[in-house]
Amino acid sequence: LEGVKDIPPPGQPATPRVWRTILLAVMWSIWKRRNNKVFNSIDNPASLC
User: Where are the domains of the chain?
Assistant: First the structure.
């Protein structure tokens, strides 16, 4: 949460660091969901949390 203060307000372009963080969070979420399905046979419905 250290970088929260660096997130630009709505309507302003985000910095490359912010985009990398967002991309990493999305990729991590996809990875966790895939591993749950493949290794634990858990098929969770899509959610934003």
Answer: 14-39
Euclidean distance between CA atoms 39 and 49, whole angstroms: 21
Tens of pLDDT, residue by residue over 3-24, are 667 766 667 777 788 888 888 9
User: Residue 11: what are its φ and ψ, rounded to 5°?
Assistant: 95, -10
Q: For the residues of the chain, what is the DSSP string, one character each?
A: -GGGGGSPPTTSPPPHHHHHHHHHHHHHHHHHHHHHHHHH---PPP---
Predicted TM-score of the model (pTM): 0.56
